[in-house]
Amino acid sequence: MTHYELELPALVSNSPLGFLAALGILQLTTHDLDQPARLSWRGPEAPAVLHTHRPLTHQALADLLGSHLPDDPAKEPLPLVPGILSLPRTGPSDALRMPIDTALHHLRTHTQAERDHNTPTAHWFTALVNQLGIAPIEKNTGDVRPARGKQPVLYTSSTPLFGRGGQMTLANNWAKAAQECRKDPTHLLAALTAWRRVDGYAGANLDHHSTGDAHMVSQGKPTQQGVPGATWLALHAFATFRLTGDTAYAQTTSWDRATPNGALTWPIWQPPLTTTSITTLLEHPLIRTPHPEPAKLHNLGVTAIYAAPRTRLPQADGPLQLGNRTHPRTATKPSSAP
Asked: Average pLDDT, stretch 211-228?
C-alpha cells in the first residue's frame, strides 16, 4: 500500500505548542480519513511529519482541519463531541469542575452513547474531566463553604495541561481560538507552515512567546501575541493524554510534578505512530525515568525527550517554557529531509 508524507515545518519537536498541535492534527483527521494518519519527527529540534494513505498538501490539510471549526464557538466550542465544553456551570467558574456525582452521571450517559453510536464522547469527557482528582472547592475560587455539620461537596478537577488564571476556563480558551480561526481561516495553514502571531490574542498558556514582551512588539509595550491556529489544534491534543489521580492529587500522562509548577514531558520518535500508539509511548516508564538507558529508548524508536516547565504569573498559571532537551544531552544534528 502506498504511503505519503507531509512535513509540517512550523511544528518543531522542541516546542510544547508545536508538539501538542501535531497530536491535535491526528485527533481531528482520525474522523476524516479512511485509515488513521500517523506521526513521526525528523529528529531533535526538527519538524513533525504526517503519514497518510492519500496525498495531502498543506492547504488540503488546513481545509480538512477547518471543517471541524465550530459554527458558533461561544455556544459550542467542541462540535466534534458536543455537550462537554458547553456544559453549564455547577458551582465554580469552570464547568469542567463539577460535583463528582454529576461527573459520574455524565460519564454513564457518554459511555452508553459511545457503545450505541461509536462516538468518542466518553473518551473526550475522561480526557477533560478528572474523576480521580477530587476536592472541595475553596471559597476564594467562587464556591461557598458548606453549612456547619454538612459534608463538603467534592468537585472534579480538569487537565493540568491547561494553565488557569483569573476567569480563564478551558471552554472560553477553546472558543477564542476557534473564533480567531473562523475570522481568518489562513491561521490553520499558518499553523502548519509558518506561525503568524496575533496582537491581543492570549493563547492558552501553551507557548511562552505568547506573553509578548515589550522589546518583541512594534508598539514598544507588552501585549499578548498568541498563535490561534496552532493553539486550536493543540487543545485537541488533550484527548491523547489519560487523566489519573489518587483523589488527593490529579495527574495526567506526560505531566511531571517534580518542578514547583509542573512540567510537560514528551518524547519524539522516528517510526510513524497512530494516536493510540502515541498514548502508549507517552505512558512508557522509560519516558519518565531520570536517566534512561539510551539503547532501550532507541529500541522504542525514541530520538529525544523534552521537558517544558510551567511558568508562574501573579495569582495565575503562566505559559509553558520552550522545551529543554533532557535526552540526549549532547547536541544531535537533526536528520535531513529525504
From this structure: 65
Q: Are strands 129-136 and 154-158 parallel, antiparallel or unpaired?
A: antiparallel
| Cα–Cα distance for residue pair 172/251, rounded to 1 Å | 23
Tell me if residue 135 falls in helix, strand or coil. Answer: strand
∠ CA 177-181-182, nearest 5°, is 115
* Alpha carbon distance 9, 191 (integer Å): 9
Q: Are 84 and 102 in contact (CB under 8 A)?
A: no
159 touches 130 (CB < 8 A): yes
The rounded mean pLDDT for the chain is 88
Letter for the amino acid at 133? G
Q: Which three cell numbers mark 129?
A: 474531566
CB of 155 closer than 8 Å to CB of 99: yes
Residue 337 has pLDDT above 50, yes or no: no
Helix/strand/coil for 234: helix
For 306, residues 6+ apart whose C-beta sits below 8 A from its C-beta are: 13, 14, 16, 19, 265, 266, 267, 268, 323, 324, 325, 326
Q: Which of 281, 262, 243 is nearest to 39 (CA)?
A: 281
- Pick from 6, 20, 3, 8: nearest CA to 46: 8
The rounded distance, in Å, linking the Cα atoms of 95 and 83 is: 11
Instruction: Indicate whether this model's pTM tops 0.70.
Output: yes
- Does residue 147 carry a pLDDT above 50? no
Q: How far apart are CA 32 and CA 97, in angstroms?
A: 31
Residue 331 has pLDDT above 90, yes or no: no
Asked whether the bond before 338 is cis by omega within 30 degrees of 0, the reply is no
CB atoms within 10 A of CB 286: 16
> Model confidence over 262-271: pLDDT tens digits?
999 999 999 9
Three cell numbers written together for 316: 495565575
What is the predicted pLDDT for the residue at 268?
98
pLDDT band at 178 (very low <50, low <70, confident <90, very high): very high
What's the distance, CA 83 to chain centroid?
A: 19
